[in-house]
Design goal:
Four copies of one chain form a homotetramer. By secondary structure, the first copy, chain A, is mostly helical. The first copy, chain A, contains eight helices and no strands. Chain A binds a DNA duplex through helix 1 and helix 3.
DNA sequence: AATGAATGAGCCTTCATTCAT
DNA sequence: AATGAATGAAGGCTCATTCAT
């Protein structure tokens, strides 16, 4: 009956909607979804609380939009890297570069990643989007392999494993949690492990 | 000013405290920390809402206790496995067994793991406990290696990487999220990767 | 300070104002005054939310206009019936016709009547208009009696009583609420009661 | 899942619940349902806003309870009057007494009646309760007639008509809206009309 | 005259925590 | 130790009304 959310067409409105998403992005990063209230989001975005509900169905809707922004932020550099791959793949040199690249992506988005990912367990839509993100990355890599004529057995499983390793490693690396770990050694180990996987 | 939280010495009280923790454990598993309220915990535990604050400082305090229980539940089977290792280690056969074992542990505790882990990003103490958990597992394995005279270069880093891989894989395996993945193949791939790591 | 509410003189504007009133009329009928919001009224009228406040002081002002329309809708057929009365009145045949006529009027306007009348208890102006409506009907009938030379003792009281009876009956008849009531019998009873009143 | 409303068994609690209902009763009477907010109800009842939701599901639930109280208040004196009727009914003297009695009931409850009745058009449960109220009164009178061996054709319809007339008249009488009406004359007219009905 | 985005007060409701018993 | 009623701050959301364009 209600629930019609303005779909802003004018640039001014889009700008405002983006401001709200950005405010949500920041606040979710800083204090998490449950630590953020809509008034705060509005304030940070420089708008009134009311208008937030002009652009979004509810608080969770902001979350979903933030999530989408996040996903784009993650996918974009990955696509860029893959686009550059033209000739035959030299995994020995490619993988270490990739690892560094993924590390960079993670560094930029750690906080929001944590905030968003922590909701996957209770919010099915959020969970689905994360799954989809993995699917898209996997697919993109598969496509690249095809395009370059690279034949790899169980490619999908390998890619997934590589992604998992990279993700876990990035997390560890960024938080630098364990003092007894030499993260440089760990990084090279990760690279080598993935290289072995694709050899 | 604030009266201390009772440290129950009598068995009756300890039992009651445990009931509350168990109720929290269940509810956090089922609907997450934010989906649970203290009244519900009390009800599930069969106690009054008031007494909850006799045993715990606040809701978060219950969380911490639940987390500790969880950690014990995870550590216990790992310790057991390691205790059984007596002779020289045959990684080729050991690792696959380990993988299965870890999978089992995860299967039992997935929900609560998700619920608790999702709080690590906003709660420093929770985060610390998860880090500590990894530390303890790492240490235990290192100790075992020492005891058995196994010499491995960069053991700590390798163990960590193996843990990360296992954890990520377990998560994937349990949720069976991607239909294009053959999880049996993936499992064997995980085993082999870890074996290679320690060879 | 408050700028006057436009009194539209141009036909275009009058048309627009009427559209808004009509939209209010419909929506109040459908979901009541409190179930309707101004945005919805504007949308239904095909105008912007802002302009509503160009034609009306506030939401309540629309209500008052709707009420006026309603009153006209009720009065018009009553006037028409009375206009037709030319010769000496044969109550025996007139009253049953009247009853049917009033029933018809009610049937057409039940919903809006309910919506509007329910506000009389909290809104003095609404209440006053309903009183005035009764006054006007009473006066019109009195006038007719005079014109036709009909002499009736306590005419005003009788007319009022007849109106009350008719109104209450119509309400009952339309909603058909009580299954144990034979509404045809009731209708004839009403007619007879009123006939007796004027005999 | 939630929605469990305390069913107070202790007198203290019942008292408090009644206080809230009374506060609602008063406020709904004074400013109507929509003019009342829960905070106000709580304040008037001398309790916190929170506890209101310990006793009632939501604001509307208070309304329903108020309505039930109102219904009892209306039924009680009617039952009392009927109970007194023992011998053969002398409608000539009974009806005028009845009229006065109903007038008294209405005088006491006008405001709340208005407030509650105005909600019947948008709230099905409220509507149903008002219908039921009429049903109960009708039934009670029918029973009395039976008990006293009074045989009346179309008794149900007559009773309904009488109720309607009485109700409408009471409303008119209490508000004394039309200055040109002699309400004493009207009252006697009402009595006589009803007497005629049952003769 | 007209638009519709924007405002912000206000409402209902929840829930961690306290307190009288 | 225990109860569970009570508190009240806080949150999400709505909507009559205003304002920049």
């Amino acid at each position: 009956m209600k629930s019609e959310v303005r779909q802003p067409r004018q640039s001014r409105s889009i700008e405002k909607k983006n401001k709200i998403i950005l405010a949500g992005y920041e606040l979710f990063s800083e204090v998490g979804y449950y630590g953020t209230n809509t008034a705060e989001i509005a304030k940070r975005a420089g708008v009134s609380t009311g208008i937030v509900y002009g652009y979004f169905q509810d608080k969770r809707d902001i979350l979903i939009c933030v999530l989408e922004i996040y996903i784009d932020k993650v996918l974009e550099p990955i696509y860029k890297i893959l686009d550059k791959l033209l000739g035959p793949i030299a995994f020995d040199t490619l993988i270490p570069k990739m690892v560094d690249e993924v590390l960079k992506i993670h560094k930029k988005n750690t906080k929001i990643h944590e905030a968003l990912h922590s909701l996957a367990s209770t919010d099915e839509a959020v969970n689905a989007k994360f799954i989809q993100l993995e699917d898209r990355i996997t697919q993109e890599i598969i496509n690249k392999f095809c395009a370059l004529g690279v034949q790899i057995e169980n490619a999908q499983e390998k890619i997934h494993l590589a992604m998992n390793i990279l993700q876990a490693f990035s997390h560890e690396y960024i938080f630098d949690k364990h003092e007894y770990i030499d993260y440089i050694v760990l990084r090279d180990m990760v690279s080598q492990t993935i290289i072995n996987l694709f050899k």
